[in-house]
């Protein structure tokens, strides 16, 4: 293996030694003479490109000698092209490009283009509905671009994606979905701006289909108002564009990891109206725990048809399949405390049938430019998640370590039908400019599950965690009856079904004052919600206001304040028969944002206080009932830095201080107690340095850490803080790239620490371990 790797590296370096390159520089302005920031510039027929900075300048490095077409392509704007010639060893200066729209119109444009190899992102995706640059939005929004994901070699949402945003904590999982907490609360999953959250789902997105991930901190009325107030994460998938995309990758690593991806795209005909993108992924991997595996593949084709310069229609299909070991195999159980078993310990057996998951996701999107000031977007989404499998959980844990392992059926079906229409526009009243956002959201979700069949694994024979003996006879594994459909089996000893219906209207006016130096956002959302869980239903009609203020105190610097609300439906009734009101949550937030050195790196400092009212607590006069007198409060501050702080050094650095506690309760002893599900202190860092032009041109090194202090992961009640030991992990990487090849070697957990996450539960403890030192080698080729 070492010989082959050496030969491969030798070939790559030799190939590069004979490649002669030059650089391209230029600038872009709008028709009113202002610098055009955030515009993507690309070379037709290649993947080379760059984004303009705040002054409208761009630079494209390491371009092979030859003649190219420089292209700026925008939906709703006429494509602009320039012929240029690149000479080896020289810098080509391109004549100034003038866009045919003014700066205010430019902010509404959907930008499609090549990667800029930068960790910074200046504007949110169109799927977040707002056209304002991130530095001017009165809310803490952090974006993880594709470049960060690739450098860290993350392959799905279960991995280290959360390290790139302050205060985000990955809670233990069942192996198929990501449970992410932010500001102490669970946050829902969005895809392309649509809420795809479901119980124990959706299936984690493979990074082969991901363009970027956006984290919105706190309630976000411009998206949805129902749900926990911690925020949301929005996965933006790869889209068709005119840029020719042809890339294949091959990854090998620890635990028999083998993974390959294909990414191709472009126009079916040169200057044609029909664009395409196809992403394929196949992987197989084991685990540091025995009998644990996950085999996956993904197929994601998408099309965009440009009906005219003003109208486009897109269709996207995502199919993800996973065959994995029994759900729950990652958990370790002990009667004495955390971490007293080897990290490769497992309760699983090799002859337990695997769990199969099939997920189908469809998006259809219409974008239409009504005029130079108004645009409308309509999107339909459909998600079908089908799971057939089982789960492990102990029926009992004895003080001597004897466990009766229980295995139960876990078949599930989730179906989500989603729709949204929103309008973006601009009007003026005197000297005041108004950015208008108005829209409607509709959602129908149903979740069916069968948990009602099962029994002890190996009968009454105990399994001792301190002296594990594997090898259960096949006839001692319970057999499940699947002769009826999952919809019928979902009604067992109690209705194991949940669902929700909602329709919501939203309107927002962002007033631009004093030549856009002051921006005031006024918004209101109305939501009609009905839902049911385990036979209990709830119906709510809720108004949630939003007020935001952003002030540009200096060039590329803004301070902001925000007030926003969300609500959480609650089923049930009080002793008097009164239906419970929804939990009302409000977020007070303030911060300062800055884009440094022509947008090369960005920083955000935010402080917040989230208060949840109407929380259920014990009724002191009727002990068997609840009353809505509880209150929970989360407060803290966050700091994020992203981008190229010095030439060649890309940085992700963040810190969060989070404190979540009970502030009101009928039981005074609970007031001031901590609510589990967060770490008081989290800091993460990732540094990636690409060596300057010399004999080592293309060589890069990376180093990253994750550090959590005073952490807890799961909330089984306010009186159970489940405090875990501090967490520290160190990772590193070495890479080399040129125009065609990229090879990277990542090593995680360099210090070989015993790392885990878990909680106390009843009379025992459970946790999930992470692997010790492990590696991945990834080879990418663009053609």
TrEMBL record:
Query: Where in the cell is the protein located?
Result: Cell outer membrane
Keyword entries, A-Z: Cell outer membrane, Ion transport, Iron, Iron transport, Membrane, Receptor, Signal, TonB box, Transmembrane, Transmembrane beta strand, Transport
- Residues in TonB-dependent receptor plug domain copies: 134-231
Family per similarity comment? Belongs to the TonB-dependent receptor family.
State whether keyword Ligase applies.
Answer: no
Where the record annotates domain TonB-dependent receptor-like beta-barrel, the positions are 340-750
Q: What is its main location?
A: membrane
Presence of the UniProt keyword Zinc in the record: no
Q: Which InterPro entries match?
A: Beta-barrel_TonB, Beta-barrel_TonB_sf, Carb-bd-like_fold, Plug_dom, Plug_dom_sf, TonB-dep_rcpt-like, TonB_sidphr_rcpt
Q: Where is the signal peptide?
A: 1-19
GO process terms (BP): siderophore transport
Protein name as it appears in the record: TonB-dependent siderophore receptor
Q: What is the lineage of its organism?
A: Bacteria, Pseudomonadati, Bacteroidota, Cytophagia, Cytophagales
Gene3D superfamilies named among the record's database cross-references: Carboxypeptidase-like, regulatory domain (2.60.40.1120), TonB-dependent receptor, beta-barrel domain (2.40.170.20), TonB-dependent receptor, plug domain (2.170.130.10)
- Pfam families according to UniProt: CarbopepD_reg_2 (PF13715), Plug (PF07715), TonB_dep_Rec_b-barrel (PF00593)
Q: Which organism is it from?
A: Fulvivirga imtechensis AK7
